[in-house]
Design a protein that fits this description.
heterodimer, A: alpha/beta, 6-stranded mixed beta sheet, 4-stranded antiparallel beta sheet, B: mainly alpha, MetI-like fold
Chain lengths: 262, 372
C-alpha cells in the first residue's frame, strides 16, 4: 500500500505496544437490562485477520461496534492501537481515525458523489487539501476497481459497487484496523464475490481486519482465526482449519451443520 | 441459418394512428378516455365558461385604467367594469406607505439589491458566487441604514413605513432569520444535553401554542412593561422579532421531521469516519434533512409572508392597512374589490415564486437515492 504522504499526519508513539492492535479484557455490555456481551476477552495482533461468526443476536456486531464506540461498553477495558477507550472525546476521535468500518447497509452519503464520499473525512478530519484527498480517493477507487464511477451518486450504483465504494471510503482515512459488519449480507448473490475479492486483496496487503460474516469460504481462505459467539459469549476461538474440521463445542457444531448443510 | 424463422426485420415501421398523436390524441387520452372523464371535462369547461368571460369583462374589457380619473363616479360614467384608477391614485402609497417621497429611491435601491443578495443563495452555479456571498453578508446592514437612515443619510421613522415595503421587509427578515434559528432549535430538541433539549422544547411548544396575533399584541403593548422605563424600542422591530420567533418554532418542527427521516446508519458512518458533531450535521445530516423538509419549510415561509398582514392589528400600515385608508376616502369608497385584488396579486406573485423555486430546488437536489 502506498501511503507515504499520509503517514506524516499520524503521530507515532514509541511507548505503545506495536504488536497488539486491539486488546479487549473482561468486557461487558448491557442494552438496558439485557446482557448482550459477557466477559469478552480478545487480543488482536497487528496484521491479523479475524472472522467472527455466530447465530443472529449473538452479539457479534455489537462486539465490533464497541471497538470504535458506536456502542458503549459498561465494564472492562478496550485498548485500540495503544489508546484506552474511555468517555474522553479526544480518545474516541483518535481511535476512530485509526479504525475504519464497513456496514451491512453501506451507509454511503446519498447526497454526495462517490468521490465526495471518499474525500469528505480526509478533508474534514485529516485536514488534507482537496486535491490531495482527491488523488488518494482515486487511488483507492482504482483499487476497488470502480474509478469510472467517481462522479456518480451512490443511488446510481449497484449494491456491490456501493459496498466497494464504502470500503474505499474507509481506506481513504488510511486506517490501521478495518472492521466489517456483515459486509455482504445485504447483497445479491452475484455481487458478493466482487466485494469479497476486494476484501481478500485488502487482507493480502497486511491490513488488520475484524470481519463479522457468514461467508465461510472467505473465513477459510483469509482468516488467521475464527471466533464463534453465542448468547453474548465467545464460545470458541480457533484456526480456520481446526474450526471447520474439528469444532470442539457442541453449539459450534450445531451452527456449522446449519450453515454448511445446503 | 440465413433464414429468419420469425420474419423480423421484414415489416416496415409505420406511423402511429392519427388518433393517438398530436392534439387530438392528447385530448382523447387526457380528457375523454372514459365516461367519467367526459363528464368531468364537460363540468370543468362549463365552470370555466361561467367564470372566465365575466371576470375578463369586468377586470379588463369594461375596466377603467386611466390615472386621470379622480373619483369613482367618473369611472362609472366611462365603463361598468373595474375602476383601476384607485390603484393608480394610491399606487405609491400601496408600495411605500408614508415613506418620504424624496427618499423613496433608497427603498427602490434596497429592493433591487435584495435580488443581487439573493442570487448567490438561490443559485450555486453563479459566476463569482464567492464575492456575491460577501455582498449578501453585508446586505442586511446596508439595508438597515438605507431604510432607516443614519451614517449621514436622512433618518426615517418606522411609523412612516407601509404598504408592500412593510410586507417585504417583515417577510424577508422573518424568513432569513427564522430558518437558521429554527434549524438550531430542531438540533437543540435532538440534543443529548437535557438542559438544551428542555429549553428547545419549551420554546417550540410555547410559540406554537400561542396565536401570532397575541404575540403581536404582546410586542406592541406588554413588552414595554418588561423594559427599563425610558427605553424606546421601535415597534416595527418588536413586531419583526415576534414574527421571527413565531416562525422559527414552526421551522424547527418541520426540520425535525426531516431529521427523523435520516437513517441511523448515516450518523454511524459519520461517527465511524471520525467526523465531529458540527461537521457531521453540517456536511451530512442537515443537507439531507433540509432537502426532505423543503416543501414544509417553503410552506412555513409562505404562511409567514401572508401572516405579515396581521401587523395591521397593532397599527402598522401594510397594504391592507393602506387600502383601508383609501376606502375611507369618500372619493374611492366601495372599490374594495379592486384594491383587494391588486393586493392579492402582489402576494400571489411572491408566494408563487417561492413555490416554483422550491420545486426547482427539489429537482436539482434529487440524486436518485430514492430508487435504492
Amino acid at each position: 500500500m502506498n501511503n507515504g504522504n499520509m503517514t506524516k499526519t499520524v503521530v507515532p508513539s514509541d511507548d505503545r505496544d506495536h504488536s497488539v492492535a486491539i486488546e479487549i479484557t473482561n468486557m461487558h455490555k448491557w442494552f438496558g437490562k439485557f446482557h448482550v456481551l459477557k466477559d469478552i476477552n480478545l487480543t488482536v495482533e497487528r496484521g491479523e485477520r479475524i472472522v467472527i461468526c455466530g447465530p443472529s443476536g449473538s452479539g457479534k456486531s455489537t462486539l465490533i461496534r464497541c471497538i470504535n464506540r458506536l456502542e458503549e461498553h459498561q465494564r472492562g477495558d478496550i485498548t485500540v492501537d495503544g489508546i484506552l477507550l474511555t468517555d474522553n472525546i479526544k480518545n474516541i476521535a483518535e481511535i476512530r481515525r485509526e479504525v475504519g468500518m464497513v456496514f451491512q447497509q453501506f451507509n454511503l452519503f446519498p447526497h454526495l458523489t462517490v468521490l465526495e464520499n471518499c474525500t469528505l473525512a480526509p478533508i474534514w478530519v485529516r485536514k488534507l487539501p482537496k486535491d490531495e484527498a482527491d488523488k488518494i480517493a482515486m487511488r483507492y477507487l482504482e483499487r476497488v476497481r470502480i474509478p469510472e464511477q467517481a462522479l456518480k451518486y451512490p443511488g446510481q450504483l449497484s449494491g456491490g459497487q456501493q459496498q466497494r465504494v464504502a470500503i474505499a471510503r474507509s481506506l481513504c482515512m488510511n486506517p490501521k484496523i478495518m472492521l466489517f459488519d456483515e459486509p455482504t449480507s445485504a447483497l445479491d448473490p452475484e455481487m458478493i464475490k466482487e466485494v469479497l475479492d476486494v476484501m481478500i486483496q485488502l487482507a493480502k496487503s497486511g491490513m488488520t481486519m475484524l470481519v463479522v460474516t457468514h461467508e465461510m469460504g472467505f473465513a477459510k481462505t483469509v482468516a488467521n482465526r475464527v471466533i464463534f459467539m453465542d448468547e453474548g459469549e465467545i464460545i470458541e476461538e480457533n484456526s480456520p482449519d481446526e474450526f471447520f474440521d474439528n469444532p470442539r463445542n457442541k453449539r459450534t457444531k450445531l451452527f456449522l451443520s446449519q450453515i454448511l448443510s445446503h | 441459418m440465413d433464414k429468419n424463422p420469425h420474419n423480423t426485420g421484414i415489416r416496415q415501421d409505420l406511423p402511429p394512428p392519427k388518433m393517438h398523436v398530436g392534439v387530438a390524441g392528447w385530448i382523447r387520452k387526457n380528457m375523454l378516455s372514459s365516461p367519467t372523464d367526459v363528464f368531468l371535462t364537460v363540468i370543468s369547461v362549463y365552470i370555466l365558461y361561467k367564470i372566465v368571460p365575466p371576470l375578463a369583462n369586468w377586470a379588463v374589457l369594461d375596466a377603467v385604467f386611466s390615472g386621470d380619473v379622480n373619483h369613482r363616479n367618473e369611472c362609472r360614467e366611462i365603463a361598468a367594469g373595474a375602476c383601476w384608477s384607485v390603484i393608480v391614485a394610491r399606487f405609491e402609497q400601496l408600495l411605500y406607505g408614508f415613506y418620504p417621497v424624496h427618499l423613496r429611491w433608497r427603498v427602490n435601491l434596497t429592493f433591487i439589491l435584495l435580488f443581487v443578495a439573493l442570487i448567490p443563495l438561490l443559485y450555486d452555479q453563479v459566476r463569482g458566487r464567492k464575492y456575491l456571498l460577501w455582498f449578501t453578508l453585508i446586505y442586511p446592514i446596508f439595508a438597515f441604514f438605507m431604510l432607516w437612515g443614519g451614517l449621514g443619510l436622512e433618518s426615517v421613522e418606522s411609523s412612516k413605513f407601509g404598504g408592500f415595503l412593510l410586507t417585504v421587509l417583515i417577510g424577508v427578515t422573518g424568513i432569513a432569520v427564522s430558518l437558521p434559528l429554527g434549524i438550531a432549535l430542531s438540533l437543540g430538541r435532538q440534543s443529548s444535553m437535557p438542559l438544551v433539549r428542555l429549553l428547545s422544547v419549551c420554546y417550540i411548544e410555547f410559540f406554537r401554542g400561542v396565536p401570532l396575533i397575541t404575540l403581536l399584541f404582546v410586542a406592541s403593548t406588554l413588552l414595554n412593561y418588561f423594559m427599563p422605563p425610558g427605553t424606546y424600542f421601535d415597534l416595527l422591530l418588536r413586531v419583526i422579532i415576534m414574527v421571527i420567533l413565531f416562525a422559527a418554532a414552526y421551522i424547527a418542527e418541520v426540520v425535525r421531521g426531516g431529521l427523523a427521516a435520516i437513517p441511523r446508519g448515516q450518523f454511524e458512518a459519520a461517527d465511524a469516519l471520525g467526523l465531529k458533531y458540527a461537521n457531521c450535521m453540517r456536511l451530512i445530516i442537515l443537507p439531507q434533512a433540509l432537502k426532505i423538509s423543503i416543501p414544509g419549510i417553503v410552506n412555513t415561509f409562505i404562511g409567514l409572508y401572508k401572516d405579515t398582514t396581521l401587523v395591521v392589528i397593532v397599527g402598522l400600515l401594510d397594504p391592507l392597512g393602506i387600502s383601508g385608508a383609501a376606502l375611507a376616502d369618500s372619493k374611492w369608497q366601495g372599490l374594495s374589490t379592486e384594491l383587494y385584488m391588486f393586493i392579492a396579486l402582489g402576494f400571489f406573485i411572491s408566494c408563487f415564486a417561492m413555490s416554483r423555486y422550491s420545486l426547482y430546488l427539489e429537482r436539482k437536489l434529487d440524486t436518485g437515492h430514492k430508487n435504492q
